[in-house]
Amino acid sequence: MENQELFVPSVHSSLEILEWLSKEEHKYSTLTDLSNNLHISKSTCLRILKTLTAKGYLSYNSDSKNYSLGFSLIPLGIRSQEINDRIGRAIAYLPQVAEDTGITAVLVKRIDHRLMYIGKQEPLQKIRLTVTVGETFPIHVGALGKCFLAYLDTATRAALLSEYTTNGTFPTYTDHSLTHLDQLLEQIDQIRREGVAQSNGEYNVGINAVACPIFDERKKIILVLGGFTLNPIQDTDKWEEMKKKMIRHAHKISELII
Amino acid sequence: MENQELFVPSVHSSLEILEWLSKEEHKYSTLTDLSNNLHISKSTCLRILKTLTAKGYLSYNSDSKNYSLGFSLIPLGIRSQEINDRIGRAIAYLPQVAEDTGITAVLVKRIDHRLMYIGKQEPLQKIRLTVTVGETFPIHVGALGKCFLAYLDTATRAALLSEYTTNGTFPTYTDHSLTHLDQLLEQIDQIRREGVAQSNGEYNVGINAVACPIFDERKKIILVLGGFTLNPIQDTDKWEEMKKKMIRHAHKISELII
C-alpha cells in the first residue's frame, strides 16, 4: 500500500478474506482458519465476516461453520466485466480459442509483480486442464510470464525481474525451470521475433504452454492469451499449427478490444 | 443489520460503494458523488476508495476524477459462480432461454424484501430490452415478484407484503400496477395452478413479463426465471406458446441445479 495513512485496515482485511476464499483449497474456511492465516484478530475477523455475510458477499454454513464466497459477488463481477468492457470482450472471446485449439485457454493480467488469471475456458473434453480464475503466479515463469515480460519496456522488465533474481539466478519450480536471467533474456528476443512464447513444464511438470500478447490502442501489452496442454511440444507440426492459431486469436482479441 | 455490534462500518461502506458503482447511472462517480450520496464523510470515503483502488477493486481515472468498478471483481465474480455452482449453472443456461424465446431472459434471487437480477441474457436483436445485473426491485411487482411470492409459504409472504401495503393497498408504479392486496392474492392462486406468472406494464410502461419458479431439491423456490418483451400480451397464441417454453426452461434449470 503506497500510503499507510490512506488505507483502511478492516476494508483491506475484508478484501483479503474474499481473495483467500476464492482459492480452490480454501473455498470453505472457518473463522479460525481465516483469522490465523490472514493474521486478523478473531473478534475483528468475526465482525468483518458478519458484515460481508449480511449483504450476501459471503455464505455461512452453520453446520460446518464454514464461510464461502456469496452470490452478491456474481452481479458485481458481471458488472465489472461490462464496465471494463475491453476485458469483458476479451473474456467473452475465450470459448472460440478453446474450441478452435482444443486446449485450455486463459487470459492473464498483471498485478504488481505477479500475473492473475482473469478468465479461462476449457475445451469440451472429459478430462481437461483447468486453472482457478483469481489465482496469481510469478511474472517470470512459463510461457505466459515470458510473453508478458518480452513486451514490456526494458526498465520496467528489469525492475520486475529484480524481485525474483539473486545474482542473476531464479528460483526453480521444476527440472525444466529457467534458472538464469541470461537464458530468459535470450528467449525474450526470440519471443519478440516470433510473436509467441512457449514453455515445457517450466512451472508445472508435464504441462506445456503457449502464450501471445494482447495490445491496447497504444500498442502496449495489457493481457496475455495463454493455452495449456499436455501434448508434447516435440510433435512439431501440431505444435507449430497451434502457435499460429494462438497468434491469430490474440490479434483478433487485440482488434476486438480497441 | 441484525446486530450493530457485529458490524464494521467501513466494510459496510465499501460494499455500498461497490453496489452504487454497479448501477448504470452511477458507474462513473467522483469522491464527492460517493461521499454525498452514501453519507460517508469525505475523508473516510477517500481512504476506502484508495484501499479498494490499490487492490484493483476500483479503477480511478485521474483526468475525470471518476471511480469505477475495477477488474479484480471479475475473478471474484466468476469464482462465486463456480462455488455457488447451482446459481452458476442456472446463469449459464440463460443463453438457451433467450435464443429459444427471442426475449430477454433474467434470473432473480431474493435479498431481504427485494429481488435482485443475478443474471441476464439478451436475444440477438439490434434493439432489445436489457436490465442491469445487481439491480434490485420490490418483491411484489410484476410477473417476477408475483411468481416469487406465489411459491412462498403463507407466513413468509404475509410478512414480506406487510412491508409494502398500507390498509391493503400497494404503491403504484404505472396505470397497470396492482393496487390491492386482494387482487394479488387472487393472481397468486392462478399462478400456482398454471405454474407461470405474467404482467403487462405493471412496473414499467409497455414492458410485459413472464416468470416461472425454480426450485431446489427440497421443492423450495430459490430463483425466478423471467422474460421481458415489448410484444403485446393480447397476441394470445404467441404468448401462450412463450409461457409454455418458459415453464419448460424453468423445469430444466430446476433439474440442472439439483
UniProtKB/TrEMBL annotation, chains A, B:
Annotated coiled-coil segments of the chain: none
Listed GO MF terms: DNA binding; DNA-binding transcription factor activity
GO terms under biological process: negative regulation of DNA-templated transcription
Superkingdom of the source species: Bacteria
Residue ranges of every copy of the IclR-ED domain listed in the record: 72-258
Keywords, ordered alphabetically: DNA-binding, Transcription, Transcription regulation
Annotated HTH iclR-type domain residues: 8-71
Name the record gives this protein: IclR family transcriptional regulator
The species this protein was found in: Sporolactobacillus laevolacticus DSM 442
